[in-house]
Amino acid sequence: VCTVKTSLDGVALLAELNRIEAEFGRERTFRNAPRTLDLDIIDFDGIRSDDPHLTLPHPRAHERSFVMLPLAEILPDFELGEHGRAADLAQALGGKGIRLLKE
User: Fold this and answer.
1) Which of 5, 66, 73, 93 has the fewest CB atoms within 10 Å around its CB?
2) What's the whole-model pTM score?
3) What are phi and psi of 73, to 5 degrees?
4) Residue 88's domain spans which residues?
5) Secondary structure string (H, E, C) spanning 17-56
6) Is 44 left (phi over 0), alpha (psi -120 to 50) or beta?
7) CATH number for position 71
8) pLDDT for 4-59, tens place per residue?
9) Structure confidence at residue 101 (pLDDT)
């Protein structure tokens, strides 16, 4: 999880993330196929989008501890749409299956 500042709009940012994934060898053989790299946009300046190519906020981020734990670490008060604060979501999900990498 990271935060970025960009002059790109959401669609252009997603295209750039897809380009980076491809550069690292990601192949999109079928939906939810195993991946070498997966870059997603969790939120884009609070914008809501139901476009099939760019759904915002990310529709399942609030269910994933591997997203919410690091998000809560850097932005505990971040509001993820109607789902609530990152810190509260992370606490509810717990850390089962998550391990910190050593520096």
Assistant:
1) 5
2) 0.84
3) -70, -40
4) 10-93
5) HHHHHHHCCCCCCCCCCCCCCCCCCCCCCCCCEEECCEEE
6) beta
7) 3.30.70.560
8) 999 999 999 999 999 999 898 877 777 766 777 889 999 999 999 999 889 999 99
9) 79
